[in-house]
């Protein structure tokens, strides 16, 4: 492969020296916005997939073993050397049907895969560069296969795209180890190249989401973010775009702060906001299953099914979505520990999914779903310690209580609940439960044993469409 990014004839026709702003996004009423976001709000649980040529070194370089998708940057690998990984990337064991089935069986409703990470490598045969899947021995299009399988199996297909590009000669912050770059960086030219790639992705694969990342470096501006957002919404008015297209994200907290706000939802990373973000803010927590996003062959710090299910309940109780990552190998396999854990989560979701899908936030106040301060695990990832023993989600006329720690006294009080209870029962087996209205709220009598060791769900049907709860004193 040639040692620099090559623009094809189509790219030369597309790229212009003078950057021109895109037309405005289609006008949208609040009702139209809600309609566009409806499937995403209903889904609640999705699979993130970080996959690319960085899976070839599998986290190891020059005697160090804690790398993954950032290996080119973190290890300062010369780009000419990094390009050689493309020649070794041949995921012959990749099976799109198996990927999508793993997600679906876990109860996940959408799938977001890296079309291009920060290394600039495209996981589809782009007409605008040879730094993509067509320069590998793998003579297939994994994005096309996944998008087809998602349609077949009823999972929403979505794409990640990195704004930052360590490989490009035109990205404004050029690395000293980019030994293939030529000329002077030109962000206008880069933005047009980026639009060209995004047009390929949107028109060929029709994703439900474009999930941006890599916006924090100074070459990317709020104006460029708004321009690309408008460009994409004009291409596909139904497209959902996260807030990392802009410049207002408040770090890993993920919500927008200050100027530069653009995009449809907030993106906290590796953490759950203790109070959520309140009504009117759509958000999604993304997390790894172990300590890395991309594949690292030595990383066995896997989250337990218990942690995953508790996180899912906690996120739903605060009104958010949960995007949980897998990092496939260079052979094209999702690591078996990931598959095993997701299967256990899926078994729980088959029984209790109605408490998650399309649910509203807890009516008992954010403190009823709060987590205490995080503490660090050995692998450096946040570990969340529950401050309460249960969470709550809602549907019209229903409250779902996800109980993590079964009360020893056989009773659970819903503090401040003033709505009249029609009936209460366990989702597992639909065993009816007695309730009593007290001065403090509603008390539910429970059987001696929890039906589920991880999280048992109680459905409380109420007379009101929305629960009436007195403020806690």
Key structural traits:
2 domains, TIM Barrel, alpha/beta, globular, Immunoglobulin-like, 5-stranded antiparallel β-sheet, 7-stranded parallel β-sheet, disordered N terminus, 17 strands, 473 residues
Q: Helix- and strand-based class? A: alpha/beta
What order do the strands of the largest sheet run in, or round the barrel if closed?
5-4-3-2-1-7-6
What is the highest CATH level, the class of the largest domain? Answer: Alpha Beta
How can the largest sheet be summarized?
A: 7 strands, parallel
Number of domains: 2
Mean pLDDT: 91
- Which ranges are low-confidence, i.e. pLDDT below 50, for 5 or more consecutive residues? 1-19, 369-387
> At the third CATH level, what is the topology name of the largest domain?
TIM Barrel
Order of helices and strands: HHEHHHHEHEHEHEEHEHEEEEEEEEEE
CATH superfamily of the largest domain: Glycosidases
CATH architecture assignment name of the largest domain: Alpha-Beta Barrel
State the helical fraction.
10-25%
Number of helices: 11
What is the radius of gyration? Answer: 23 Å
Q: Which geometry do the CA atoms define?
A: globular
Strand content: 15-25%
Instruction: Report, as a whole number of angstroms, the end-to-end distance.
Output: 68 Å
């Amino acid at each position: 492969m040639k040692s620099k990014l090559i623009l094809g004839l189509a790219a030369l026709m597309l790229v212009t020296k003078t950057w021109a702003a895109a037309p405005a996004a289609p006008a949208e009423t609040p009702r139209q916005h809600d309609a566009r976001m409806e499937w995403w709000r209903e889904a609640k649980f999705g699979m993130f997939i970080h996959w690319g040529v960085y899976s070839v070194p599998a986290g190891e370089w020059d005697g160090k073993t804690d790398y993954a998708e950032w290996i080119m940057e973190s290890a300062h690998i010369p780009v000419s050397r990094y390009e050689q990984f493309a020649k070794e990337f041949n995921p012959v064991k990749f099976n799109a049907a198996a990927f999508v089935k793993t997600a679906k069986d876990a109860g996940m409703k959408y799938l977001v895969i890296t079309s291009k990470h920060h290394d600039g490598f495209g996981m589809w045969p782009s007409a605008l560069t040879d730094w993509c899947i067509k320069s590998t021995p793998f003579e297939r299009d994994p994005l096309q296969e996944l998008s087809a399988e998602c349609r077949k199996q009823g999972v929403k297909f979505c794409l990640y795209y990195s704004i930052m590009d360590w490989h490009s000669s035109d990205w404004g912050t050029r690395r000293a180890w980019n030994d293939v770059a030529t000329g002077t960086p030109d962000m206008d030219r880069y933005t047009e190249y980026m639009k060209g790639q995004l047009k390929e992705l949107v028109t060929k694969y029709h994703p439900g989401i474009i999930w941006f990342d890599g916006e924090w470096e100074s070459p990317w501006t709020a104006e460029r973010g708004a321009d690309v957002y408008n460009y994409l919404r004009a291409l596909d008015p139904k497209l959902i775009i996260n807030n990392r297209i802009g410049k207002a994200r408040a770090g890993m907290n993920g919500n927008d702060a200050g100027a530069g706000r653009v995009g449809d939802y907030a993106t906290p990373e590796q953490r759950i906001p203790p109070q959520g973000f309140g009504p009117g803010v759509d958000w999604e927590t993304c997390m790894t299953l172990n300590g890395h996003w991309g594949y690292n062959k030595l990383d066995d710090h896997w989250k337990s099914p218990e942690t995953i299910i508790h996180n899912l309940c906690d996120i739903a109780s605060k009104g958010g979505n949960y995007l949980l990552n897998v990092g496939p190998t260079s052979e094209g396999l999702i690591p078996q520990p990931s598959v095993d854990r997701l299967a256990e989560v899926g078994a729980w979701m088959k029984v209790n999914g109605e408490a998650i899908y399309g649910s509203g936030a807890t009516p008992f106040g954010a403190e009823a779903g709060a987590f205490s301060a995080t503490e660090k695990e050995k692998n450096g990832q946040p570990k969340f310690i529950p401050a309460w023993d249960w969470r709550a989600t809602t549907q019209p006329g229903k409250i779902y209580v996800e109980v993590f720690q079964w009360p020893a006294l056989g009773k659970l009080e819903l503090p401040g609940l003033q709505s009249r209870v029609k009936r209460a029962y366990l989702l597992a087996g639909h065993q009816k439960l007695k309730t009593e209205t007290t001065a403090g709220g509603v008390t539910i009598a429970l059987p001696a044993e929890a039906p589920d060791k991880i999280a048992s769900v109680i459905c409380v049907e109420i007379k009101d469409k929305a629960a009436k709860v007195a403020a806690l004193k």
